[in-house]
Design brief:
CATH class of the largest domain: Alpha Beta
Radius of gyration: 28 Å
Distance between the termini: 58 Å
Number of domains: 3
CATH superfamily of the largest domain: P-loop containing nucleotide triphosphate hydrolases
Oligomer: single chain
Shape: globular
CATH topology of the largest domain: Rossmann fold
Strand order of the largest sheet: 8-7-6-9-10-11-12
Number of strands: 18
Helix content: 40-55%
């Protein structure tokens, strides 16, 4: 028995008919609770759309063939099938969105999850686009797991033969009450039989929504946003290439890289920590490649960990969630105590106040604390630590065996003192030189020491924007051949348009945000972020337009020199949320009319990109990398001109047409960035630096 699996409308029925007509092979089907044949296991091939952990028999040794199709075509076909065959009271657009979201695991887990699950389980992967172009060539690939009988090529059915004939499979007998109804169902089931029909069906909004929800899996399969099928990356997509039967050249050259990651041990979830986490996550698939040319280790507290094993700990959501639950249990017990001892008429008021205070002060930190606790626990025990020889002064870590050491923050130079290695150092910005007044003296000192140390070590520098690269040239006189640019990205699995209104209401209630329009600003509360001028602009806006019933919501924890800003806490229509939990942040972006990020300077500007990924317009400071990245896609404002900031706020709140345009351009701009591409580009820089250094030492 072999599973013939697919997400619905991906060519499975066509494949079964080819097997029957050309090879004489009958097949059965397995659907939970749909009355599958009792003897389906007696067939050599069994069709299913269920997830691997839902099928019976559950034996993972049973071979599997998975058919996959561009997700847009699959969902378009499903949306039509529902309205054409199953429920005429529905409409195409709603059906498409419902299938795209696949709430609570509906629609066979959703397209991405179904594909991801079966790619891990399958022995052979067949793309629908390859199948309809050359059916026999794709079916013949089964010979590697099943001896196909002699084929009868003249029996190969065309798509029209199936659509207008009486095929063995796909006849809809279960639904039809007459032969006439059966023929009608056949024609509706076999709709077009061509690739990329979605281009004629989906408007720009639906295309963008789909890409927001399913981009990662589309990238891994080679389906481009413009509808092309592009070449896969052998570093990241090795498994998929193998399953597709594509030729892969054996890597004869391997590279070893050590990534310093002590930032992970810090409680604050700042931009650099997010950079380290997301880069390691994006690089992790490379370490599971059996043909890998990269050996990547992680350096933490004097120990070296294989990224392949360490990543399983760092990114194990279930284990981290277990630690998080230890904190939430205490919270729930306190609520139960209040409910038991407090009179009912006071309970709602007290519990509401308790929730609000605890959420702001403690519970919102719980998940990060839990993750940090678990990570430190693993490091303390030494689990997953690599077997290394203890020879150098660097906490016993032998550094000479690495072709390159990547340090994501120059301030973390101290572990590498009195060592001689080849370094690549990520530079996020040079604000300690450009705006020293916005930093403490100690911050300026350590940043300068780190930068100077790595310059003396003849390090190369990876800049997160062209702006930062230009600053390195101007302020540090760094040669062009020592500088590389790799842009950051937003987590596109987390930051995307929210189509669930209940989530918005819930998150608003947590942070005390009324049910009316609000402008949002997010940052650590410090002078460089220009929050005072943002507040002044908002107050000027309300003074001039009292009819605007809206709020300014300021998210973020207190930072350096935030005293002046804190004095504004009790101003009318201004809400300070304090720290915003990372899981609530996408919802707040979605709920906001716009993100106001009118900073004096940014090395990249991650919050604006996160907001744009949520289809939220942005008002940005017209300078530095913000201008580089967002000009033409968002509204610029002079950060020193309060009236200019106010003018852009007014556009957002009163010009519905312009706001709608900005929503679409924002979302489309966000598609130009992904951590996958950041990781691909980073590996390319690694290779360039390593080759350059090897050439210079020969």
């Amino acid at each position: 028995m072999i599973w013939l699996s697919s997400y619905p409308r991906s060519g499975n029925t066509f494949f079964r008919n080819v097997l029957f007509d050309v090879y004489g092979i009958s097949s059965s089907s397995f659907y939970e609770n749909v009355g599958e044949p009792e003897n389906y296991t007696a067939f050599d091939f069994v069709k299913t759309h269920m997830l691997p952990d839902e099928i019976l028999p559950a034996d993972t040794n049973i071979r599997a063939v998975y058919l996959v199709r561009d997700g847009r075509d699959a969902l378009v076909s499903m949306a039509h099938q529902r309205v054409d065959i199953y429920d005429a009271s529905t409409n195409f657009r709603d059906n498409f969105i419902e299938a795209m979201i696949a709430a609570e695991g509906s629609y066979f887990g959703g397209w991405s999850k179904n594909v991801e699950s079966w790619v891990k389980r399958a022995d052979i992967l067949i793309r629908f686009e390859d199948l309809i172009q050359n059916p026999l060539a794709q079916v013949e690939r089964l010979n590697t797991i099943y001896p196909l009988p002699q084929k009868k090529e003249d029996k190969l059915p065309t798509f029209n033969d199936l659509k207008f004939g009486k095929p063995k499979y796909g006849r809809g007998k279960r639904l039809a009450n007459s032969e006439e109804e059966e023929l009608d169902i056949i024609q509706k089931s076999f709709r077009k039989g061509k690739a990329f029909g979605w281009k004629d069906e989906l408007d720009c909004e639906l295309q963008n929504l789909f890409w927001s929800y399913h981009r990662n899996m589309m990238d891994q399969l080679g389906y481009a946003k413009n509808g092309a099928v592009v070449a896969l990356n052998p570093d990241f997509d090795y498994q998929v290439m193998q399953l597709l039967g594509q030729e892969i050249l054996e890597n004869k050259t391997t590279y070893s890289v050590l990534i310093e990651a002590n930032k992970l041990l810090m409680h604050q979830n700042d931009g650099v920590k997010r950079y380290v986490i997301e880069l390691l996550k994006a690089l992790h698939p490379v370490t599971e490649n059996s043909n890998a040319r990269w050996k990547i280790d992680v350096f933490l507290k004097g120990r070296v960990y294989s990224l392949q094993e360490f990543g399983k700990t760092l990114f194990d959501a279930k284990k981290n969630e277990n630690h998080y639950n230890k904190f939430t249990k205490v919270y729930k017990l306190i609520l139960q105590f209040i409910k038991f001892f407090i009179p009912k008429k006071y309970y709602d008021t007290i519990s509401k106040y308790f929730k609000k205070v605890l959420m702001k002060i403690g519970l919102k930190f719980a998940k990060n604390v839990a993750r940090l606790f678990y990570l430190k626990e693993r490091i303390k025990s030494g689990k997953e630590a690599a077997e290394i020889s203890f020879e150098s002064q660097l906490g016993g870590v032998e550094m000479g065996k690495y072709d390159l050491i990547h340090v994501p923050l120059p301030q973390h130079y101290e572990p590498f003192l009195e060592t001689s290695n080849k370094y690549l150092v990520t530079i996020h910005d040079l604000t300690h030189r450009l705006f020293s007044e916005y930093h403490t003296a100690s911050n300026v000192q350590v940043a300068e020491k780190g930068l100077e140390y790595f310059r003396k070590q003849n390090a190369d520098f990876l800049c997160i924007s062209e702006t930062t690269k230009a600053d390195m040239k101007t302020l540090c006189h760094t040669p062009e051949d020592k500088l590389y640019t790799v842009l950051e990205a937003a987590d596109n699995q987390k930051f995307k348009p929210n189509l669930n209104n209940n989530k918005g209401k819930y998150v608003r209630s947590i942070y005390g945000i009324p049910d009316k329009p609000f402008l949002f600003t997010l940052s650590t509360l410090e002078p460089r972020k220009n929050l005072l001028n943002t507040v002044k602009a908002f107050e000027m806006l309300l003074d001039e337009h009292p009819e605007l019933n809206c709020n300014l919501v300021i998210g973020g924890k207190n930072g350096w020199k935030s005293k002046d800003l804190m004095q504004l806490k009790h101003r009318k229509n201004i809400i300070f949320t304090g720290f915003v939990d990372e899981n609530d942040l996408p919802i707040l972006y979605n709920e906001a009319e716009a993100l106001c990020y009118v900073s004096f300077y940014e090395g990249f500007g991650l919050p604006p990109l996160e907001a744009m990924s949520c289809k939220t317009p942005v008002i940005y400071g017209d300078n530095s990398s913000l201008r580089e990245l967002f000009k033409g896609y968002a509204l610029p404002a002079n950060p020193t001109d309060v009236a200019d900031i106010k003018k852009q706020m007014l556009i957002i709140l009163t010009d519905e047409k312009r706001k709608a345009e900005l929503e679409e351009t924002s979302l489309e701009r966000s598609f130009d960035f992904s951590w996958r591409q950041t990781a691909i580009d980073t590996l390319d820089v690694y290779q360039q630096v390593i080759k350059k250094n090897k050439t210079s030492t020969q």
